[in-house]
Each structure stands twice: as C-alpha cells, then as structure tokens.
C-alpha cells in the first residue's frame, strides 16, 4: 500500500512540546500576555474573587463577567448507563457542577468517610473513591496549567483529572477516505488509490502519541513504548483487551493506520465494543521542522476517532497527566472508569406532538456552541483565535410551520448557518464591542455596544433567511413562525416572528415573557398591515393568515399591488374595509419576517427557559405553563424531556389543543436541589 497522505495542517512545535511537558509559547490570541510571553494576571486594582482565573484573560477572570467563555456551572450528561451490561444510555440523567466547588467521581457511597459527588457503585473498573476530579481552573493552579488549558481546544474553564489512570478524554474526530494519491504509483507506473484523512474537530492534532502516552478504545488499553523520529515509527504495547501483550509498530508510511472490528482494518481487534472502523493513527508532518534540509519531513503521530459509537480516549496519565491537559470545552466527552460524560452548558428537553393535526409541521433545534458548523457539527478549519466569540454563543429555536413543513425544515439549517456566518464575518467588530462594553462601569445594563451589534446581526440573518426561501420562482407557499434564543456569554437575546414564545423563569418561579405574539389583534401590527394596503378580517390578515409576521408565506411578501393586481388600485383609491386612503405603500409586504428582539443579562439564579408554539399557549397562559413546568421539574429532580412531555399531554389531552404542540425546556441551573 502506498504511503497515505493526511490532508490537514501540520502540527505545531508547541503541540509536541505540550504533550511532553514543554513550555512553548502559547497560541496568539488565546489570552493577554506580558513581555515574557506569560499570561498576564489581572491588574491589582481589579476586583477578583478567590476562584478567579485571571491568568487566562478577562473572558475567564470572574463569574461576574457578562461576555465570558468561562461557565459558572456545567451540566454533565451521562453517556453510559449504570448497568454497563445493558449498554443503554441515560440521556435524561445529569449532574450539575458549581463554580468554586470540586466534584469527585468514584465509587464511594454516601456512608463512606469520603463520599464522592458522583457515585457509580456498579462501575468496578474505577480504582476507588475520587477516581476522577472535576474542577474549575483558577490562578492557584499555576501558569503551566493555564498554558496547557488554553492550547487545549476552546476550554470552558473546567478541567478533569484522573491521576490513577481512571480518567480519559475523547480525542478529536477525523474521516479517512480513499482518493487518488499522485505520489503513489503501482508496478505499471500508473497512480494508485491511496488513503487520506481530514480532521473534523478543533485541535484534533492536540492528541500526540508521544512516548508514555496511553489510550483506550473499547476494552483495550494501548501504551506508547517508543517513538523513533529517525525511522518515523512508534511502538505501541497493548496492556489490556483481546490483543493483550502484543507489540504493534506503526510506520508513517502506513498512516492513516485504521483500527477496529473490520477485517480490512490495518489492526483488526475482535472486540464487540469497537466500531468496524473505530479510530486511526495519523502522521502529520511539521514542515517548519524540515527547513528543506532533508527529504523526510519530521512530524507527529496523532490519535483520532473515526466517529465511532463508543469513542477513542486519551488517558490522562504520563505526559497527559499534567494539570491543565484535561481542559474541557462544550461538547467534549470524557470517561472515568467506564462511566462516560458529556460537557454541556445547560440541560434541555424537547417534546414534539402532532396533536389533532394530520401532519407535523413544527421543528425544534438546540445548538450549544456555534463554534462548529451547524449543518454537521464539524470544525470548518478557521484559525482558532478567530472563534472566541462563537465559542461562547448558544442557539435554540422552535419553528411552527403552516401550509407545509418546507419552511420550518429549511430554517433548521439556514437560520443558524446565517447567524454563524454573520458573527464570524463581524468577529472583529464584535470583539471591539465586547471590549468597549467591558470598559463600562455597568455590564448588566439593558443595552451596550455588543448587544446593539448583535441586534443588527440577528435582524439581518432573519431577513436574509426569509429572502432566500421566498425568492425562487418555485418556492413553496408554506411559512413558519420562529421563537429563538441566543446566549452570548451571559447575555440573552430572544427574537421572534409569529406567535411562538420565549418565556423565562427567574428565581422563585417569576415568569418573564421575552417575546410578544405577532397577531392581528395587536393594534400596532394591524396598523402596519393596513398601511401596506391590507385588511384584517376574522382576526386574520386578508382573512387568511392568523399571524402578521412569519418566514415564508411568499404570496403575502410581494405586496398588495402584486397580490390583487387591478383590485389594488381600486382598494387604494377609495375607502375600503379599513378606511384606506393616501400614503399607503402597496409594495410593502403584508407579512414581515423582521424580528422583535429582547435583550437581557441572565442572572446565575435564573432557572429555565420555555420555548413553545401556539399549540401550547393557545390553551396555557405563560404564567400557568411556567408554574406547571417548574412544579414538575422539582418533582422529577430535573428531567426536562419528561416535563416537556407532561406539558404537551396537558395541552392536548386535558385542555384540548387542536394544533401541533412543540415544547423546548432549557434548564439553566438545578434549582430543585434547594426546593
């Protein structure tokens, strides 16, 4: 087989030095640094708390920071079940950490002298109590820990350790594919098929297989015994699993070196917990080390996961046991023993019920970080330092379609895509606006420079998505409402068109409606329709549409002149049903896709967000829906998916809602623990 070629950027020297405990300079843009290249601490005049992480810069320095990448708390979702033999996930089970509190994971129960915060008694692979330690990084962890954490993807400020070999982090994803390798030729001199690889995760090249590194896949554990730079090969010893005791040598020329259950894999491991093509070892050259002095470019062997079911994990021992190497970002996965966790900004649950309608036209969406491409969740190869604003941005939405599901289905992909693209294009302006806001004395004010810019971005994205949907000549006549939330640091933006709502439950059950329905019953909305030459009949626009703002609905966007043609002139010239007169813009759309946007800074005590379509709010007042949801969240100790289902059943079975009912509950903190 010809030598495979990896199609990604070369590994920097800092990545290799980092894995070997070196002290290369940090990546540019990660944090403010002093003249010695070290993270600069906060100024002495700045008020900081004991758990602050000023070494990482302003965006991690304080829990009071509004535009922050540091999470005050994280939600750990279990990715494995208590009964490992069943192998069933427990997606509804979650554990919440808290700022300033260390979380221990092990098998010590409540009666133990040192009980663990998360006790998994059935996991006999754990070495004992405190097999894994989760904490929020702070200045007392030292300078090197900050350097390691800032290099490790887009950290959220939290870190995991497993000094006894119990803890491991899931490595970055990649894809191996067959293509024509121009550098490889067969016996006939013709190009032959080779294999190439491309990484799908940010900083996938962070997981260097240096000497002393150890990784796990399925039931197997592998240890890197030697790295021979001159011969471009590594020696790997299997210490556990079906291939226990075997020594494997991997040469750069054979990379990508695929392992898994498939017989055609380079390393076939008969383990039912492995996927057919489970993971791979890549060889990534570093052209900066070559300098043209020899024909063999130096490089590093990298461990990647081929989007397997159970994952490939780098164990946090040896060179990866250094504090800060286990830094966690949103979406990261780690294991302690055989218990798996995913890192989340919040917990959420969705219920989508067709109700009495013949078809389901609603769509619901949650994206915890816009750093990755919303279409497929992969890294788009942008420079890391350009992603800081996207890394602290979350997006969620409920789309209530009507006249078909084409529009709501389109919005699931298009709206977050446009939002990410616009924020990325405006990243410098956003960064400057955030810094300007930080310079102000009050960061919790209703509006600041950053929120004003985000409003413009949101408005332009809504209008662009709508225009793209209705512009084609064969565009469907369907439409959709939208109720969306964007979390930018701690600042919340709630935007809507139509009659789907966003409602916030604050501390103690206080209900705050963040959106207002766009219906003909609103005087300002009815006036806008009439100013465009339209009329309201039976509480509907032109006697047809029950909402005054929406995506799609192409016929209502072309203006009354185009809709009614000759009748429009007669309508404009005399007194119609709405008292039509001069000054009407007959080309203005009767139904608009321009959103109304509310902005506020979330408190650390806010409890949850409720997003739902009119199928719920036609039969529930916002306060009643919040009260019932809060009551059930307390009774179920969380479980937002189950609570959303209960709300939906109440709306359909008890209160006789006739519409599709879509509900999204986003839990911001575990308030039931104090109830």
Automatic annotation (TrEMBL):
One Gene Ontology cellular component: membrane
Top-level taxon of origin: Eukaryota
UniProt GO molecular function: metal ion binding; protein serine/threonine phosphatase activity
Keyword Metal-binding: yes
SMART domains from the UniProt entry: PP2Cc
Gene3D superfamilies according to UniProt: 2.60.200.20, PPM-type phosphatase domain
Domain FHA: 257-314
Family annotation (InterPro entries): FHA_dom (IPR000253), PP2C (IPR015655), PP2C_BS (IPR000222), PPM-type-like_dom_sf (IPR036457), PPM-type_phosphatase-like_dom (IPR001932), SMAD_FHA_dom_sf (IPR008984)
Stretch list, region Disordered: 14-49
Keywords: Hydrolase, Metal-binding, Protein phosphatase
Signal peptide (from-to): none
PANTHER family: PROTEIN PHOSPHATASE
Designated name of the protein: PPM-type phosphatase domain-containing protein
Originating organism: Entomoneis paludosa
């Amino acid at each position: 087989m010809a030598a495979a070629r990896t199609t990604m950027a070369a590994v920097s020297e800092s990545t290799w030095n980092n894995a070997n405990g070196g002290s290369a300079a940090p990546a540019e843009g990660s944090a403010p640094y002093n003249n010695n290249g070290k993270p600069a601490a906060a100024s002495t005049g700045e008020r900081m708390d004991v758990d602050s992480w000023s070494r990482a810069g302003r965006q991690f320095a304080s829990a009071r920071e509004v535009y922050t990448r540091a999470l005050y708390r994280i939600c750990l979702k279990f990715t494995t079940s208590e009964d490992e033999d069943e192998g069933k996930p427990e997606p509804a089970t979650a554990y919440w950490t808290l700022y300033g509190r260390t979380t221990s994971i092990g098998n010590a129960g409540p009666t133990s002298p040192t009980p663990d915060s998360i006790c998994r008694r059935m996991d006999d692979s754990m070495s004992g109590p405190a097999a894994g330690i989760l904490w929020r990084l702070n200045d007392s962890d030292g300078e090197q820990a900050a350097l390691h954490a800032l290099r490790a993807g887009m950290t959220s400020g939290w870190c995991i350790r497993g000094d006894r070999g119990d803890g491991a982090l899931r490595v970055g994803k990649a894809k191996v594919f067959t293509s024509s390798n121009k550098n490889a030729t067969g016996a006939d001199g013709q190009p032959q098929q080779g294999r190439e690889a491309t990484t799908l995760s940010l900083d996938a090249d962070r997981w260097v297989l240096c000497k002393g590194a150890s990784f796990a896949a399925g039931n197997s554990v592998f240890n890197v015994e030697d790295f021979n730079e001159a011969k471009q090969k590594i020696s790997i010893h299997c210490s556990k699993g079906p291939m226990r005791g075997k020594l494997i040598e991997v040469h750069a020329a054979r990379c990508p070196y695929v392992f898994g259950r498939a017989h055609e894999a380079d390393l076939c491991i008969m383990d039912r917990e492995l996927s057919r093509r489970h993971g791979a070892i890549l060889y990534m050259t570093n052209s900066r080390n070559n300098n043209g002095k020899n024909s063999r470019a130096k490089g590093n062997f990298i461990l990647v996961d081929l989007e397997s079911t159970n994952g490939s994990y780098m164990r946090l021992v040896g060179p990866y046991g250094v504090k800060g190497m286990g830094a966690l970002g949103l979406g990261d996965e780690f294991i302690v023993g055989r218990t798996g966790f995913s890192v989340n900004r919040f917990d959420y649950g969705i219920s989508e019920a067709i109700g009495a309608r013949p078809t389901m036209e609603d769509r619901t969406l949650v994206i915890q970080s816009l750093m990755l491409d919303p279409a497929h969740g992969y890294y788009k190869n942008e420079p890391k330092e350009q992603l800081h604003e996207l890394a602290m941005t979350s997006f969620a939405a409920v789309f209530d379609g009507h006249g078909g599901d084409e529009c709501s289905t389109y919005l699931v992909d298009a709206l977050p895509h446009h939002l990410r693209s616009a924020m990325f294009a405006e990243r410098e302006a956003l960064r400057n606006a955030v810094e300007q806001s930080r310079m102000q004395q009050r960061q919790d004010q209703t509006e600041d420079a950053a929120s004003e810019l985000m409003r413009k971005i949101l408005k332009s994205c809504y209008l662009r998505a709508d225009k793209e949907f209705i512009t084609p000549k064969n565009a469907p006549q369907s439409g959709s409402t939208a109720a969306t939330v964007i979390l930018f640091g701690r600042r919340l933006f709630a935007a809507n068109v139509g009659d789907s709502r966003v409602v916030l439950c604050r501390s103690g059950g206080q209900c705050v409606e963040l959106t207002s329905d766009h219906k003909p019953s609103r005087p300002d909305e009815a006036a806008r329709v009439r100013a465009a030459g339209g009329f309201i009949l039976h509480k509907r626009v032109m006697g047809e549409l029950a909402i005054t703002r929406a995506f799609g609905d192409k016929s209502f966007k072309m203006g009354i002149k185009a809709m009614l043609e000759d009748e429009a002139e007669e309508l404009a010239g005399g007194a119609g049903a709405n008292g039509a007169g001069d000054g009407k813009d007959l080309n203005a759309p009767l139904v608009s896709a321009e959103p109304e946007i509310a902005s506020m800074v979330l408190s650390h005590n806010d409890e949850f967000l409720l997003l739902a379509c009119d199928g719920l709010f036609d039969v529930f007042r916002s306060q009643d829906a919040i009260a019932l949801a809060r009551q059930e969240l307390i009774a179920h100790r969380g479980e937002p998916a189950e609570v959303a289902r209960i709300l939906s059943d109440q709306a359909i079975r008890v209160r006789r809602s006739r519409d599709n009912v879509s509900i999204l509950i986003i839990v911001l903190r575990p308030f039931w623990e104090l109830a």
